[in-house]
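Illustration: Yhm2p.
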Amino acid sequence: MAPISAPSTSLEKKPVNFSNILLGAGLNMFEVTTLGQPLEVIKTTMAANRGDSFPSAIKRIAGRGGVFGFYQGLIPWAWIEASTKGAVLLFVSSEVEYQAKRNFALGNFGSGILGGMAGGVAQAYLAVGFCTCMKTVEITRTKNVAPGVKVPSTFQVFADIYRKEGIRGINKGVNAIAIRQCTNWGSRFGLSRLAEDAIRKMTGKTNKTDSLNAYEKILASAIGGGLSTWNQPIEVCRIEMQSKTEDPNRPKKLTTWTTLKYIYSQNGIKGLYRGVTPRIGLGIWQTVCMVGLGDMAKEAVAKLTGQKPVGKGH
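Result:
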């Protein structure tokens, strides 16, 4: 069998683009500080307290801290996570997208999936694990203590978990996170690229050099982000593994599989999809920021530096 040839439109090899690292960090910081963290808190609360409806979850969160309750875990954990995982995602996904197109002649859809999957896995093990664990702990831990007793700070809780359980304790659920991130960003990038191709055909932009406008980019990203929430059971599993919500029926040693079985036994198939509504909103917002705005920002940076953006095929 003849080897797969590179696409006819040559893709110029670019040097390591460190602007993608700073750009990814900035975009993710923007995403989480605006709509990201409130949607994360609502999603996590519903998944950890699976008897809660959307309104009762809002009431529970507001009761814990008013408006600031919706930003629990933002500082420092969400900021640490955002400033690192965004950089990892855009850098890794851009490079993998380029290599997939250059070496395997893949189109936007296939290279987008591979880039997103690689970026997601890299996120999980390099940045997201302990930050996501601590965010979930902060959102779900009880803060009702005896009168006159000071509520432990988030750093004291972190130190206590590390002292008792070591590195595994602060990275609890990291394998579920890796599965989530891999499927998340593989779906988001791939489906967004697929939506871009569909929009390009609908608008008569048959030439691959024709760029989508800002509205078309955002629409494609919103479609990709919304549809990528199909993996909600993995997200509910991850939250349950990290949750500090008291449940005497929960098995002591949780793996991804035993946690999924436990949630199903307690709450049925609906339990595996608790929190999917705010997660759809979160998925849309994250993908608009990291794929749609990310592509536009990379193009803007490339114009300023006189380079073609890495990982772009159109």
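Reading the tokens back as a structure: DSSP finds ten helices and no strands in the chain.
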